[in-house]
Specification:
Blueprint: E1 2-8, H1 12-20, E2 28-32, H2 36-40, E3 48-51, H3 53-61, E4 73-76, E5 78-83, E6 90-92, E7 103-107, H4 108-120, E8 125-129, E9 133-139, E10 142-147, E11 152-160, H5 167-171, E12 176-192, E13 199-205, E14 208-214, E15 220-227, H6 229-236, H7 240-250, E16 258-260, E17 265-274, E18 278-279, E19 282-284, E20 290-291, H8 299-319, H9 327-355, H10 360-375, H11 377-388
Parallel strand pairs: 1-2, 1-11, 2-8, 5-13, 11-19
Antiparallel strand pairs: 3-7, 4-7, 5-6, 9-10, 10-11, 12-15, 12-16, 12-17, 13-14, 14-15, 17-20, 18-19
Helix pairs in contact: 1-4, 1-8, 3-8, 8-9
The structure holds flavin-adenine dinucleotide.
Residues 8-14, 31-34, 47, 49-50, 108, 132-133, 161-163, 167, 185, 187, 267, 286-287, 294, 297-301, 303, 399 line the site of flavin-adenine dinucleotide.
């Protein structure tokens, strides 16, 4: 079982990386713990992923976009971020950048389904599913990947895309800084009487943060609520009718009556940044490299960007007849991806801390920050350029807490 590259993990990042190498002449093994049936029809995990213009271009180039159904694509026209009960906030309007919209919203399970369908068409990718990697060993003369079923794979290069809690990263001795925010994030699809008008809401309330992400149907949104775990447990114990009423109450009835229309999915909020993205004949991509707090909606956008950067370096080395695993190839990836992600990772950490801290000094600072942001045109333009730029995956500076409708 000898390959050019073994990819560990067939999540969105691992799948996109395999797809990005199509036609390069490299033989790839893609190892995934889940069974193939699950990968072909992934379960709804409640996540709605906000996609920037640059990510949308990458998804088109990889063939994933064409595999999405029309009703799986939501339009993110405008967004508003508000603090507490203020009437004025930071409004991001698509027309300020001459674009038809700020971005798109796609369900994570739709992305996974589309990516897996694309990879299934690639003869050079051997899919090894229902198999977990138990050990990885790399050295100057090659790599060895051991599976729990006793099989051993050999490759020139191992690329790990096995989530923010990556066991492969740990096995390679790569440290990561982790920030546990001590909060739980609930994502829940809901129908509501008042239409969303394709506007995302961010609402940094006292003791809670709420977001509303507009989906394809004008009366359906993804509601994202962040609470301390004990409060979340109480909420999740409610039946659908009581939960819907509690959500309508949290939104101060601004959306009229609300109904639960999707699974309840709760996630612990943990941010992760690997100290290194590469080692000898080894690279980390996706959340295994940079696991963002969802408040800035950038985990997958960065995952897409990183896999594209690494694939470009690997393809160039292969085309030039150079080793795809050479330190210079890997270090170029490390440098570029760190530069692209580190500032926003740090800013997100700061923002997430500030907006989940209800003590008085934090409340004053965020009120000032939002007020200043609303007045400072250059700041707004920088944020909007990040969302709408075609050429790089820059910040999507909000996600999660919601606010009033800017109408
Ligand atoms: C609530 C929420 C909202 C989000 N919203 C946004 C957003 O708006 N915009 C955005 O860009 N991002 C968003 N994200 C982040 C985004 O979902 C992630 O960045 C992305 O899914 C990570 O993809 P990945 O492939 O790196 O990892 P994962 O999706 O975690 O996939 C890892 C894969 O590796 C497999 N695996 C793990 N260990 C092994 C092993 N030992 N052997 C074999 N296989 C293994 C797993 O089974 C899994 O399939 C959000 C995340 C959450 C939780």
């Amino acid at each position: 079982m000898s390959f050019d590259i073994v990819i560990v993990g067939a999540g969105p990042a691992g799948l996109c990386f395999a797809r990005s190498l199509a036609g390069s002449g490299l033989r790839i093994a893609l190892v995934e713990g889940q069974e193939e049936e699950v990968l072909i029809t992934p379960p709804d995990d409640g996540r709605e992923i906000a996609i920037t213009h640059h990510s949308q271009r990458l998804l088109r180039e990889l063939g994933l976009w064409a595999r999405l159904h029309e009703d799986e694509v939501g339009c993110l026209r405008d967004a508003i971020v508000l603090d507490g009960n203020d009437r004025d906030g930071l409004i991001f309007r698509h027309d300020e950048m001459g674009k038809a919209q700020l971005g798109w919203l796609l369900s994570n399970h739709a992305i996974r389904r589309a990516a897996y369908a694309e990879v299934m068409t690639l003869p050079e990718v051997e899919r090894i599913t229902g198999a977990r990697v138990s050990a990885v060993c790399t050295g100057s003369d090659g790599t060895q990947v051991s599976l729990e079923n006793g099989e051993i794979l050999h490759a020139q290069l191992v690329v790990a895309a096995d989530s923010r809690f990556s066991a492969t990263r740990r096995a390679m001795g790569i440290a990561a800084s982790m920030h546990d925010f001590g909060k739980t994030m609930l994502v829940l699809r809901m129908q509501h009487d008042v239409p969303h008008e394709q506007v995302a809401w961010e609402w940094f309330g006292i003791g809670q943060t709420l977001a509303l992400l507009p989906l394809h149907d004008p009366h359906t949104s993804s509601v994202v609520l962040t609470l301390p775990p004990p409060m979340m447990r109480t909420l999740l114990a409610l039946d659908d009718a009581a939960l819907a009423a509690a959500m309508a109450e949290r939104f101060q009835q601004r959306l009229g009556a609300m109904r639960v229309s999707g699974p309840r999915c709760a996630y612990p909020l943990v941010g992760v940044y690997a100290k290194r993205f590469v080692a000898e004949r080894f690279a980390l991509i996706g959340d295994a490299a940079v696991g963002m707090h969802p408040v800035t909606a950038h985990g997958f956008n960065f995952g897409l960007l990183g896999q594209a950067t690494l694939a470009r370096e690997v393809r160039a080395a292969k085309a030039a007849g150079q080793p795809i695993w050479s330190p210079s190839v890997l270090q170029r990836y490390e440098r570029r991806h760190r530069l692209a992600t580190r500032p926003l990772y740090l800013a997100t950490d700061l923002l997430a801390g500030l907006y989940t801290d209800d003590r008085r000094p934090a409340r004053v600072v965020r009120k000032l920050a939002l007020g200043a942001g609303a007045r400072l045109r250059p700041f707004k333009r920088m944020v909007m350029a990040g969302l709408t730029a075609e050429a790089s995956g820059l910040p999507m500076p909000f996600r999660q807490p919601g606010a009033r409708n800017p109408r």
